Amino acid sequence: MVAMSVLRAAAAFAARLSPLKSGNTAANLLSRTIPRADKVAVRWGHGKNVFVIQPSNFYDSRFLRLLRFYILLTGIPMAVIVTCVNLFIGEAELAEIPEDYIPEYWEYYKHPISRWIARTFYDSPVKDYEKMMAAIHIEKEKADMRLAQQEVRRHMRQKGDGPWFHVETINKELIDNSPKSSPDH
Amino acid sequence: MPSDYDKEAYPEPPRQTPVVDKKTILPNPALIVSKLFYYSVDLPVSTFRDIVDSIRAKNRPVYYHQKFRRVPDLTECQEGDYVCYYEAEMQWRRDFKVDQEIVKMVQERMGACHQREGHSYEQNCVREIQLFNETTKNFLSRYGDLGAYGSGRKCLMKQKERMMAAQALNA
User: Which of A159, B49, B163, B169 shows its CA 20 to 30 Å from the CA of A174?
Assistant: First the structure.
């Protein structure tokens, strides 16, 4: 009897917590069973399967979406720029070099974007050529000087009359010649 | 429009279209198809090109062929003059590129002749084929087995070997 009243109190409490849930009335509280997930009723109707169970496509589609976004982020501006350059500026025409005119080094390219790259980022090939020749000249002078130095060293060591390869000798003034001034002393 | 190709180097074959001798009243389907193609494809494309050219004509850049001065060869350099060696080497490399392009052009002409003549190319393009054979033989004898690190010096040595072989053959 006491249990019945406790149960009734519990049912009333559960009903107070969530009154709209259908399993919470006093009649169902005692007799309701725990639903089991693997034994859900699957009704094989006579139509086709409208809810097809598949693995998730979310990760694949997210990857492709992000790939498209990051490629097009710079791809579209670049495509627009290249199209505008080709439409409005256009490729260069070949012409003879006029008299008394030395073309700039970027005027030897056809496409305007190649010309711009050569003008903005690259040095003139003449400058590179001259730099290389200057480097070679400096190295040649260094090599020549080293050979000359070796030759001079060899000569001075042999002859001994040059400023290198000195052996310090004592002062001639300090020599005491008095024992030699008289024979048989 | 850009300048057309050299018509003497690549001559067009003689036209073989027969004289039109219409015997029926029915319309010629080939004519209908060609007119259709003209109005639907050729005309829009040509007008687009003309529009774009008129926009482009205002600020049209110009480009030139770079002309390099001739410098003393490797044979005219003093021994030990490395700057002269460098300039001769660069000149040799430019000449190598020019020779490669010459061979490519001769090959292209022979190919065009072959394409034009069809099955009778052996007899009709004799001059082109002979020019091609001569050019490739000369190119190989001069630049043939120099290898990936070929330089003007190695080419000169190869020439020396050729001259020695020719002298040995004559003697």
Answer: A159
